[in-house]
Design brief:
Strand content of chain A: under 5%
Mean pLDDT of chain B: 88
Largest sheet of chain B: 2 strands, antiparallel
Structural class of chain A: mainly alpha
Order of helices and strands of chain B: HHEEHHHHHHHHHHHHHHHHHH
Number of strands of chain B: 2
Shape of chain A: globular
Helix content of chain B: over 70%
Distance between the termini of chain B: 23 Å
Low-confidence stretches of chain B: none
Strand order of the largest sheet of chain B: 1-2
Strand content of chain B: under 5%
Structural class of chain B: mainly alpha
Number of helices of chain A: 7
Number of strands of chain A: 0
Oligomer: heterodimer
Distance between the termini of chain A: 61 Å
């Protein structure tokens, strides 16, 4: 197998990572729940693409496994699970963000800047896609913002998943060969189980409160 | 020796899926954790003889610190299993919970324990992270066991904050790995703790600093350090009492253990007090935040949760003071706290079953007239928790403070003393108000269940008293070695 030009690979990775960031920003302004789930699936697909480019370039077979696991878990299984959950609890109404779209966009712009500032000392690392750390940190920060800005329990789950995507981007891009297989598998299953547990809780909250609005979870204080 | 410790609880959990009578499920839990306690004692002897015990090509690895944590997990889980059998029998009889949920408890609790064992026995930092996430997920369903509105709210806060924290910790873990692979770009480096420690001096210090900050916030959230503690009082108060005991007794310390691994690595790499100041600042802040919240609580288990916050803060501060004596004191404090806090939560469980509430205005005053044995044990445990002699917590607190004074950290030592004094007064004042005194006039005589849950509580209190006056030589040696690991020995 002929490794592709390192420059080309680096550009591809940067392009795909930038795509992940764009999708993250779309999720911030997008109000439809089902569209949000689809956007998450596309973002995960881009992540799998980055892993595949890395794997091809370093000729590392176990990084291909990461790409495959990402596609199975985050592009196919989790969106399907979340879709089913949405249908089961019958909510199609729009997400009600606390802040409106322009304000959210502005804040996320600021967070992106912050991500780049924090990552600046490390961008000189001699490695493929060496500015992806900034994007990973930005995904982390905007994921937190999404979580604060959304009230519905299910959208908070989505926000958590985008945070996880950011961490995985860092894992793939920062380490030439990805993490050891056993760690990748551990993370993969943890995420799957986490979403199932969250799904169970969302379902029970919906049953008990007749709503998924987490701002109604306000009895425990002090 | 390490493999059986992991397998026995998992087996118990699987068996609980198939057996029907709750009595058998409870017995399985007791059996499993008695076995791990025995195995843990053997492990201590092996660690003392060989230094480090490894298995599966160094996938599992136990040093003195891990062995100490294994003992703590086993003791608290064992007491919890002993208490849980009777507790859930009474809950089902009272119609507070369905038998299906009881089965859920007995399946998930050994898994929770097994996850904690894996955290302390894993050599690989990534596996340690995955195991910690596993404990979080199994305990979330335990917190939500009653399926009431409040318990769902607590579980939701717990899982969201916990998962966010763990995502940050994963970021920290990834950054450590990035630092290791930068060091060795040609091949897949080992992610083992023992390997990382051997190359600690050559790792990129900037990357490791960033990694530590992420790991600190992440694992610190799970350990309940203020100001990331907001899930803690909710989860502790809404979970069933046996689960509260496990959360407070060991789960917080397991997260702290993960944090300590990063602290040791960062200190070894930077050769400076960078990570120490984080522990010191957040530890002291937790202690000072706990005291006023203890004073204003109107709910028994919430108050106990804030007391846990104070103790975890003290353990953090003791370790951050970084003298062999203070670290030894902090580790000792972990052990004594693990023996004391579950007793308080078990007693709270008895009180809840008798009065159907945990609010002070409903249960007090004069609980002693209704539940004399429970209140006696609870009172003793409370005196121990606030640090009165002859109990061990007095000893360990004194060790930390005197160690601080001996190394001229006067300000920190005095601050610890002030914070301890504040929560001392808080807990004493709150508990005397509800436990002692005469019952309210017109109060119906409750069906006093005098001996409920006493075996578990008596076992822990007996252990506490015994180990307060007598620390066996091997245990002492183990603690010294664990303190040396944290203090930066190879």
């Amino acid at each position: 197998m002929n490794p592709i030009q390192p420059e080309l690979a680096s550009q591809l990775i940067t392009l795909l990572a930038a795509g992940m960031l764009v999708i993250q920003l779309l999720m911030v302004v997008q109000a439809m729940l089902l569209t949000n789930i689809r956007l998450f699936a596309i973002q995960s697909l881009l992540l799998a693409g980055i892993a595949a480019v890395m794997a091809y370039n370093h000729n590392a077979s176990h990084v291909y496994m990461i790409a495959v696991l990402t596609i199975i878990g985050k592009v196919i299984f989790l969106p399907w699970l979340l879709n089913r959950l949405v249908q089961r609890i019958q909510i199609h109404q729009e997400i009600e963000p606390l802040l409106n779209a322009p304000t959210s966009m502005l804040i996320c712009g600021g967070l992106t800047l912050l991500g780049y500032v924090v990552a600046r000392p490390f961008t000189s690392l001699d490695r493929l896609g060496n500015n992806t750390l900034a994007i990973a940190l930005t995904l982390l920060l905007t994921g937190f913002f999404l979580m604060i800005n959304r009230r519905k329990a299910l959208t908070q789950v989505l926000a958590l998943l985008t945070v996880e995507n950011g961490v995985m981007l860092a894992a793939v891009a920062l380490t030439s060969y990805g993490m050891p297989m056993v760690v990748e598998l551990g993370i993969f299953f943890d995420v799957l189980v986490a979403v199932m547990v969250l799904g169970i809780l969302v379902y029970r909250i919906r049953e008990n409160f007749d709503s998924m609005d987490t701002s109604k979870l306000n009895q425990l204080k002090g | 020796m390490l493999t059986p410790i992991l397998i026995v609880p998992v087996l118990a959990s699987l068996l609980c899926l198939v057996v029907r009578p709750p009595r058998v499920m409870a017995a399985l839990g007791v059996l499993a954790f008695s076995a791990t306690l025995g195995l843990g004692i053997v492990l201590v002897q092996q660690v003392l003889a060989r230094g480090v015990v490894t298995e599966w090509h160094e996938f599992l690895c136990a040093d003195a610190l891990s062995a100490w944590m294994v003992l703590l997990i086993s003791v608290v889980s064992l007491a919890t299993s002993i208490y849980a059998g009777g507790y859930f029998r009474r809950e089902v009889a009272a119609g507070a919970i369905t038998p299906g949920r009881v089965r859920e408890f007995f399946v998930l609790t050994p898994l929770f324990g097994a996850g904690m064992f894996l955290v302390v026995l894993a050599n690989n930092l990534g596996v340690m992270w995955a195991a910690l996430e596993g404990t979080a997920l199994s305990s979330v369903l335990l917190v939500a066991l009653y399926n009431r509105r409040n318990s769902l709210e607590a579980a939701w806060k717990y899982v969201i904050l916990g998962s966010l924290g763990l995502a940050l910790a994963l970021m920290g873990t990834v950054l450590v790995y990035a630092a290791a692979s930068k060091n060795n770009p040609q091949s897949l480096p080992s992610f083992n703790w023992s390997y990382l420690m051997s190359v600690a001096g050559q790792l990129d210090p900037h990357l490791l600093k960033l990694a530590f900050v992420f790991a600190f916030i992440g694992y610190g959230t799970k350990a309940g350090l203020a100001p990331m503690h907001t899930w803690l009082p909710d989860a502790h108060s809404e979970a069933p009492s046996p689960t509260s005991a496990m959360l407070s007794g060991v789960s917080l310390k397991i997260a702290l253990y993960a944090l300590l691994r990063f602290h040791i690595l960062t200190t070894a790499c930077l050769d400076s007090g960078f990570s120490r100041y984080f522990l010191l600042g957040f530890g002291l802040f937790s202690m000072f935040l706990a005291a006023p919240f203890i004073l204003v609580q109107r709910n028994l288990k919430r108050m106990l949760a804030y007391s846990s916050l104070e103790h975890i803060g003290l353990i953090c501060t003791g370790i951050a003071m970084n003298s062999p004596v203070t670290i030894f004191g902090a580790l000792l404090h972990m052990g004594y706290h693990a023996l004391t806090k579950p007793v308080l939560f078990f007693a709270a469980g008895n009180i809840h079953q008798t009065f159907h509430s945990l609010e002070f205005r409903v249960i007090g005053p004069g609980v002693v007239k209704v539940l004399p044995v429970t209140v006696l044990l609870m009172g003793l445990a409370a005196l121990a928790a606030i640090g009165l002699p002859p109990f061990g917590l007095f000893l360990s607190e004194l060790t930390v403070i005197s160690g601080g004074l001996a190394t001229h950290q006067t300000t920190v030592s005095v601050l610890i003393l002030v914070a301890l004094l504040a929560s001392f007064c808080g807990i004493l004042q709150q508990l005397t108000r509800i436990l002692l005194g005469a019952r309210k006039p017109g109060d119906r005589a409750s069906d006093a269940r005098r001996m409920d849950g006493v075996p578990a509580m008596a076992m822990l209190m007996g252990g506490l008293l015994l180990f307060s006056v007598w620390l066996p030589a091997p245990l002492l040696e183990l603690l010294h070695r664990a303190a040396a690991i944290i203090g930066g020995a190879p």
